[in-house]
């Protein structure tokens, strides 16, 4: 196909096209080899080997489910306020208790009078639901300067 720009562009286009084709064929051959390895594994492996793989995977899934259960019991998956009980509370004590139960923790120190904190609250709430491995909490700093707060 002549683009009307002379023979140099035709030569360059043909060379690029040939290089892309070679790369694509090499990639396809590598994928086919990998698929053949998996096929031979499935065909050659005895039932006992596959059963061992299944048992390992099942044990791994059980450990992951148990870890998720422990995280939920520790308050993970939610975005909670610390130190804001029915009668107020000791934010420092609640913070240290929560931090002892969790390896990962995100703390938002906020003021209700700051409008941007509401934006942070909405985003941190979404993140808390997505990242079960991390505990997300907020502490109102307006009451923290008082005795016991």
Q: Which ranges are low-confidence, i.e. pLDDT below 50, for 5 or more consecutive residues?
A: none
Overall number of domains: 2
- DSSP helix fraction: 55-70%
Mean pLDDT: 84
Q: Specify the number of helices.
A: 4
Give the helix/strand class: mainly alpha
Largest sheet: 3 strands, parallel
Rounded to the nearest angstrom, the radius of gyration is 29 Å
Q: Give the strand content.
A: 5-15%
Give the spatial strand order of the biggest sheet. 1-3-2
- Beginning-to-end CA distance, first to last residue: 79 Å
Shape: flat
InterPro entries: Thioredoxin-like_sf
Protein name: Phosducin thioredoxin-like domain-containing protein
What order do the helices and strands come in, and which of them pair?
Layout: H1 7-44, H2 47-73, E1 79-82, H3 91-101, E2 105-110, H4 115-130, E3 135-140
Parallel strand pairs: 1-3, 2-3
Describe this structure in words.
The chain has a three-stranded parallel beta sheet. It has four helices and three strands. The protein folds into two domains: 1-74; 76-140, Glutaredoxin. By secondary structure, the protein is mainly alpha-helical. It is flat, with a radius of gyration of 29 Å. The model has no long low-confidence stretch (mean pLDDT 84). The N and C termini lie far apart (79 Å).
């Amino acid at each position: 196909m002549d683009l009307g720009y002379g023979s140099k562009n035709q030569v360059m286009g043909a060379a690029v096209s040939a290089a892309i084709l070679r790369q694509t064929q090499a990639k396809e051959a590598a994928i086919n080899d990998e698929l053949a390895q998996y096929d031979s594994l499935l065909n050659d492996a005895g039932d006992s080997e596959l059963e061992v793989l299944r048992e390992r995977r099942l044990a791994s899934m059980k450990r992951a489910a148990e870890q998720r259960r422990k995280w939920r019991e520790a308050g993970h998956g939610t975005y909670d306020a610390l130190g804001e009980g029915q009668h107020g509370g000791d934010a420092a004590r609640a913070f240290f208790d929560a931090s002892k139960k969790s390896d990962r923790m995100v703390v938002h120190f906020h003021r209700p009078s700051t409008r941007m904190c509401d934006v942070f609250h909405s985003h941190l709430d979404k993140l808390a639901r997505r990242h079960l491995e991390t505990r997300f909490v907020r502490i109102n700093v307006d009451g923290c300067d008082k005795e016991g707060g």
